Each structure stands twice: as structure tokens, then as C-alpha cells.
């Protein structure tokens, strides 16, 4: 069992999963190259080896289910390439099924032989997956009603998605014997060990594009006074600059408007009024008429694509003095080589600092490449939003449901 505060979550040691058919929720959502549509990083695909191998060695047949991207975004793609990469890391054929819950998928699942592994297509192709609802509501979803009769058990190993109350994450534990997988177990235990709320200063470096999630995370961190400094980059920095009443230029306002981020300005202002220790960049690397230049915050004329050199220097000095550093989301549009500098420099400084470092989110992890790290000092999490919400003490629905309805 994993113990988190008053929750007891069953692991693979607490369920008898041998010679069974098991549905395993993983999170292999990965950054995608917008030009080619290929995956830019496969860290999350390597992470599930122990769970899948263990289930196969115990004679189970394993059906993997995951999401990738969000509808409308260019990383909302099928899982065909993922299946090929999983096959390589698992050293066994992972059959890709171009269906999620239709007759073709159900027949394939029914006929799956002992010890074999298959991957269903992107579960977010099923629209009801995107609804946030309670476990009991999701237990009535078509996805759960169509798939659950085909399985003897359910394993949730998708730590990175455990902050979502979606059908594939919370519906199955209501109706199937369920447990956490080995990755979920490892993430939760490592974080409990490395993240001591009493260690300070704690510096959070938050960037990227999921601004709504970041606002929720920052609200939690500020309310619980968990962060000594929150260094912002990416779109979240632009939001807080606007919330502080600063002029970021009409082109950047247009970007925020188009992405629906301006509606978050009142929430960001409230965080500032609560005394949130939010730092914003003093300069940016921008693109203007095809050229890359640096501009100070109060004189922006180009489109923001990265933090500037002066900001990187200031943020680095905060990182050097920190006892705990948490990084999630890049400082800029790192898919473009010209805008990786800010994120790269801060990452190197964080790795060299004497503080504990927790890195999360697909994009920052993709920047690590093959760097080897000291696992006593650095935790590389598969989680992004889930990681930060877990550290901020928020309840994660997919974990909660495992604790209440896990072993049947
Ligand atoms: N200034 C910016 N303007 C527009 N997009 C930006 C900016 N800065 C960063 N981004 C984009 O943010 C995206 C990464 O953000 P995201 O929130 O997905 O981070 P992540 O760490 O990968 O999170 P997760 O793993 O939870 O998905 C990248 O695609 C990057 O181009
Ligand atoms: O990358 C993540 O944080 C998880 O895969 C969840 O993805 P989502 O933010 O699109 O729900």
C-alpha cells in the first residue's frame, strides 16, 4: 500500500493480478514537433517498463490506454508512433489498435493472448473522456461500460494525468479490481521523501502554455505559503505582467486574447493581492519582422518567444540560493532552436545548484536529453500539472478513487 496522509492506495503487491486480462492507464502524452508531427521526446514512454513487464511476467495480457494532446492542438495525434517506441523499450511487440472502444477494439481485446501487450488509440478521440466528472458518473460512461466487462482488473500508472477526473482515470476503479502501478508508486514515494515543506527557500520556476493549470497551481502554492519565490516564464509570465498593469505590447495582448488567457487576469490580480511572491521577467527575447532581438518589458514591440538575458541572470541567482527547486514548463517556445536559451540556462544552473531539484512536465524533461543526474538530489517526474498540484497538497482524483474503491 502507498500511504499519503490519510489515503491508503493499493499497489500491485495488494492485488492478485496473474493470468488475467488487465487494462493499464498510462500517460504517454509527449511533446510533438509541430512541423513533422513526430514525437520530440520519449521519456514518458520509457517510464512504464517495470509495470508492464511485471504484469506480462505474471502471465497477464495487457491493454494499454492513454491520451495524447487536446482536441484542436497540433499535438492531438494518434498513438501509432507511441506503440512502435513502446515495442522498442519493452523488447516485445506492442500491437497498435486504431480504435478505442468500437467493435474492432473490443474484438481485439477479447482475442488478446496471454503475455501479449496492445495499445488502444488516443482515448481523447472519445469525446466523453474530456468531461471532468465524478468517478460514479464516469463509471456510467460508454467508455467504461463498453470496456470494463472485457477485463479482470485495472491498473492506474498515469501519475502525470492523476489531476484529471476523466473517464479512463476515475471510472474503471469503481467497477474493476484496481491498483496503482509501479511508476505511480515510485513517483509518490520519491516526492514524499524529497519534498519537505519545512525546507526553504523554495523556488518554483513555472513556464509553458497551460496557463489555467498554472494559475490553479500558483493559487495553491500561495494559499499554503509553500513558495518563497515563483519565477515565471512562458505565457504565465505574460499573464502576470498584464495583471500587474504593465504594457506588453499589442501583438502579445492579441496572443493572450486568442488563447483565452486574458480572462484569467482577475484571478492573477487576486494572487498578487494575496502577497504571492511572483517574479516576472524584466526583459524578453522576441521575434520582430523575422528577426530575433531582446527587448525590456516596458518597451516591447515584438512577439515574446523567450525570457531575456538579464532575466535569466536574475533568475539564476535565485536558483543558486535555493534549498528546493521545482521546474515545470519551458520559459519560451523551445520547439524553435532560437528560443531555447532561457530554459536551457536555468536548467543547467538548477542541475548545478546544491538544492534538491524536482523537474516535471514533458517539455523541460525533453531538454535534459541524455544528461545523467544524481538521483539523491534530482527527481525527474513524469508529471507536469499533476506533480505541482501534488506538491501543493491538492487532492488528485485518480489517486483518491484508487484509495476508496481499489481492492474489490
Ligand atoms: N511565450 C510563449 N508563447 C507561446 N507559447 C509558449 C511560450 N512559452 C512557452 N510556450 C509553449 O509552451 C509549451 C509547453 O507548455 P506546457 O504547459 O505543455 O509544458 P509541459 O511542461 O510540457 O507540461 P505538461 O507535461 O504538463 O504537458 C511549448 O509548446 C512552448 O512552445
Ligand atoms: O502532460 C500532462 O500534464 C498530462 O498528460 C495531462 O494532460 P492534459 O493537461 O492535457 O490533461
Automatic annotation (TrEMBL):
In this chain, ATP is annotated as bound at 335, 361-364
SUPFAM superfamilies membership: Phosphoglycerate kinase (SSF53748)
User: What is the native source organism of this protein?
Assistant: Acidianus brierleyi
Taxonomic placement: Archaea, Thermoproteota, Thermoprotei, Sulfolobales, Sulfolobaceae
Supply the name of the protein: Phosphoglycerate kinase
Q: Which Pfam families match?
A: PGK
Q: Where in the cell is it found?
A: Cytoplasm
Q: Which family does it belong to?
A: Belongs to the phosphoglycerate kinase family.
PANTHER family (alphabetical): PHOSPHOGLYCERATE KINASE, PHOSPHOGLYCERATE KINASE 1, CHLOROPLASTIC-RELATED
Q: Where, by residue number, does (2R)-3-phosphoglycerate bind?
A: 44, 124, 164
- Biological processes, Gene Ontology terms: gluconeogenesis; glycolytic process
Amino acid at each position: 500500500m502507498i500511504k499519503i496522509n490519510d489515503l491508503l492506495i493499493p499497489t500491485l503487491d495488494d492485488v492478485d493480478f496473474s493470468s488475467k486480462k488487465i487494462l493499464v492507464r498510462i500517460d504517454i502524452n509527449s511533446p510533438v514537433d509541430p512541423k513533422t508531427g513526430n514525437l520530440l521526446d520519449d521519456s514518458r514512454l520509457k517510464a512504464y517498463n517495470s509495470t508492464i513487464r511485471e504484469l506480462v511476467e505474471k502471465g497477464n495480457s495487457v491493454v494499454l490506454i492513454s491520451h495524447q494532446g487536446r482536441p484542436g492542438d497540433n499535438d492531438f495525434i494518434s498513438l501509432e508512433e507511441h506503440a512502435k517506441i513502446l515495442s522498442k523499450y519493452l523488447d516485445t511487440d506492442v500491437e497498435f489498435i486504431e480504435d478505442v472502444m468500437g467493435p474492432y477494439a473490443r474484438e481485439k481485446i477479447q482475442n488478446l493472448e496471454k503475455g501479449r501487450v496492445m495499445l488502444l488509440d488516443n482515448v481523447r478521440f472519445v469525446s466523453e473522456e474530456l468531461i471532468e466528472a465524478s468517478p460514479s458518473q464516469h463509471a456510467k460512461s460508454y467508455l467504461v461500460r463498453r470496456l470494463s466487462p472485457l477485463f479482470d482488473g485495472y491498473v492506474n500508472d498515469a501519475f502525470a494525468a492523476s489531476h484529471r477526473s476523466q473517464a479512463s482515470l476515475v471510472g474503471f476503479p469503481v467497477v474493476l479490481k484496481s491498483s496503482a502501478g509501479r511508476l505511480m508508486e515510485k513517483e509518490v514515494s520519491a516526492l514524499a521523501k524529497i519534498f519537505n515543506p519545512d525546507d526553504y527557500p523554495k523556488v518554483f520556476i513555472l513556464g509553458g502554455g497551460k496557463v489555467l493549470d498554472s494559475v490553479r497551481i500558483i493559487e495553491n502554492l500561495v494559499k499554503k505559503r509553500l513558495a518563497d519565490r515563483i519565477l515565471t516564464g512562458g505565457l504565465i509570465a505574460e499573464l502576470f505582467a498584464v495583471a500587474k498593469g504593465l504594457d506588453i505590447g499589442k501583438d502579445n495582448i492579441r496572443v493572450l486574447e486568442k488563447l483565452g488567457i486574458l480572462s484569467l487576469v482577475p484571478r492573477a490580480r487576486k494572487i498578487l493581492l494575496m502577497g504571492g511572491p511572483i517574479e516576472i521577467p524584466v526583459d524578453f527575447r522576441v521575434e520582430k519582422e523575422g528577426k530575433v532581438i531582446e527587448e525590456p518589458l516596458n518597451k516591447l514591440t515584438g512577439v515574446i518567444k523567450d525570457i531575456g538575458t538579464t532575466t535569466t541572470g536574475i533568475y539564476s541567482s535565485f536558483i543558486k540560493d535555493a534549498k528546493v527547486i521545482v521546474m515545470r514548463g519551458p520559459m519560451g517556445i523551445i520547439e524553435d532552436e532560437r528560443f531555447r536559451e532561457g530554459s536551457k540556462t536555468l536548467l543547467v544552473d538548477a542541475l548545478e545548484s546544491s538544492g534538491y531539484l524536482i523537474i516535471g512536465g514533458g517539455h523541460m524533461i525533453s531538454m535534459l536529453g541524455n544528461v545523467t543526474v544524481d538521483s539523491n538530489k534530482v527527481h525527474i517526474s513524469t508529471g507536469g500539472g499533476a506533480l505541482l498540484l501534488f506538491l501543493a497538497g491538492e487532492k488528485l482524483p485518480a489517486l483518491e478513487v484508487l484509495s476508496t474503491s481499489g481492492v474489490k
